[in-house]
Amino acid sequence: MFHALYTAASGMTAQQLNLDNIANNLANSSTAGFQSRRVQFSDLLYQNTVMPGAAATQQTTVASGLQIGLGTMPGNTEIVQTQGDLTSTGNPLDMAIEGLGFFQILLPNGQTGYTRAGSFQTDQQGNLVTANGDALQPPINIPAAATNITIGSDGTVSVTLPGQTQTQQVGVIQLAMFANPGGLNSIGNNTYLATTASGNPVVGAAGGADGLGTIQQGMLEQSNVNVVDEFVNMILAQRGYESNSRVIKAADEMLQQLNQLAQ
Where are the domains of the chain? Predict the structure, then answer.
């Protein structure tokens, strides 16, 4: 009886965390480059009254046993790696990755961060940086006098200078990919860090033979959050929470009846 209370309580706690994750996805449904997360659950320990395969007689064994589960717990939050919609902005420094890969940026603490948000601009020295001022890696400098900026699908950045008819290449944007992108560590600002779970980054040119995606200039990748799916998940989480609360109420009523019998 008491197991029912704690088991249902674990289900309510799990659905609370599930709703927190859904709320974060919906809050970032308009965040460029945001990749949604999905909570995965796992069952807890089991109380083994009769072990499966235990001896029933000298010649027979128990076919299925008697095991009572003790609830659930959140296992992990998986990053959903689907492509977000690409929208045209007309800004020559906006870039979207079509396919696999992340932009590399230099964080203030010296670490390399990885992002899908391609809204770049130039700082006072002409270096390409994010909205937070984190420099693109490897660094690319745009001359202040440049009259036209062209970014190829392979990441080649070229500019046109006054008095010149031919373009001048100023750098190549390299992308990074991971064997397990779901193992990246989210630190906010659309930025991830590599972990032992994600593996070391594989860095290369966009559109290369290693499977990296291509770069689309003048476009941004929108959040891959499907608002309709998130609302459906929210209803399911609410119903799951409600059903577990009813189990607690039923267990409480049964305990109340037992107490009355003992009086």
Answer: 2-81+225-262, 86-221
HEC sequence for 79-147: ECCCCCCEEECCCCCEEEEECECEEEEECCCCCEEEECCCECEECCCCEEECCCCCEEECCCECCCCCC
Alpha-helical (H) ranges within the chain are 2-27, 227-262
For 162-193, write each residue's pLDDT tens digit: 888 788 999 999 999 999 998 899 999 999 99
Angle formed at CA 196 by CA 183 and CA 129, multiple of 5 degrees? 70
Q: How long a stretch of residues is the chain?
A: 263
Are 100 and 65 spatial neighbours (Cβ–Cβ below 8 Å)?
no
Helix axes 227-262, 2-27, angle to 10 degrees: 160
Structure tokens belonging to residue 56: 């029933």
Report CA 193 to chain centroid distance, whole Å.
12
Q: Which residue has the tokens 């083994």?
A: 48
Q: What is the pLDDT of residues 22-36, one digit of tens each?
A: 999 999 999 999 999
pTM above 0.85, yes or no: no
Residue 163 class from Cβ within 10 Å (0-12 exposed, 13-18 middle, 19+ buried)? Answer: exposed
Q: Is the dihedral of CA 239, 235, 230, 18 positive or negative?
A: negative
